[in-house]
């Protein structure tokens, strides 16, 4: 990708990416043209192509920025020194907080996946990378709660999260968040009571 040779993005690149990220999340990817982004960012087409090879390159960068932000949030929570169950509760609370905030439009990665059905497309590969990381991260925390393999529990958490992200756009976000957090409590209970979870 362009605009990273020095390791530090230029102000113009950051402005373009920040503008595109806001618009892509609010309006979708395919419905937003480059001209709309240029107008909102108050920049030129030549400036755009100095930093991004194509709109597709910009979309991948948008997802990379979202991925980096979510990984950083998770790391801060995991490094807070709490017990593993409390780490998972804090991660869940972050998700619930996202669902209830103004302007919530679902998960940026699920939204992008819906617009790019080809699993080999660069956008879908970026989505897959993020989801693989998230599944591994929550499974790693759940493995520290109770005994036995945590693979099923990790997948269960991700499915709860995915459902809440989708439902949060379609129903009362407060009720969705509450239901999601109750589901996480049930998952933690199943990990802590012997004989209640499957390998």
From TrEMBL:
Query: What is the protein's given name?
Result: TetR family transcriptional regulator
> InterPro entries, from UniProt?
Homeodomain-like_sf, HTH_TetR, Tet_transcr_reg_TetR-rel_C_sf
Q: Which SUPFAM superfamilies match?
A: Homeodomain-like, Tetracyclin repressor-like, C-terminal domain
Residues in the DNA-binding region annotation: 33-52
Residue ranges of the HTH tetR-type domain?
10-70
Q: A Pfam family matched by this chain, by name?
A: TetR_N
> Which UniProt keywords are present, listed alphabetically?
DNA-binding, Transcription, Transcription regulation
- Classification via PROSITE patterns: HTH_TETR_2
Q: Which species does the entry assign this protein to? A: Pseudonocardia yuanmonensis
Q: Does the keyword Transferase apply?
A: no
């Amino acid at each position: 990708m362009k605009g990273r040779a020095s390791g530090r993005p230029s102000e113009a690149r950051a402005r373009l990416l920040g503008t595109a990220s806001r618009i892509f999340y609010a309006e979708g990817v395919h419905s937003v043209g480059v001209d709309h982004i240029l107008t909102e960012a108050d920049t030129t087409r030549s400036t755009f192509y100095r930093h991004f090879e194509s709109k597709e390159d910009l979309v991948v960068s948008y997802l990379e920025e979202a991925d980096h932000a979510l990984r950083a949030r998770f790391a801060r929570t995991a490094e807070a020194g709490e017990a593993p169950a409390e780490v998972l509760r804090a991660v869940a609370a972050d998700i619930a907080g996202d669902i209830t905030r103004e302007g919530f439009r679902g998960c940026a990665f699920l939204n992008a996946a819906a617009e790019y059905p080809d699993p080999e497309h660069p956008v879908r590969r970026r989505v897959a990378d993020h989801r693989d990381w998230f599944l591994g991260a929550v499974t790693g925390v759940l493995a520290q709660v109770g005994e036995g393999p945590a693979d099923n529990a990790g997948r269960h958490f991700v499915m709860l999260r995915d459902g809440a992200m989708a439902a949060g756009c379609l129903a009362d976000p407060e009720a969705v968040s509450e239901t999601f957090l109750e589901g996480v409590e049930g998952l933690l209970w199943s990990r802590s009571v012997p004989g209640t979870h499957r390998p």
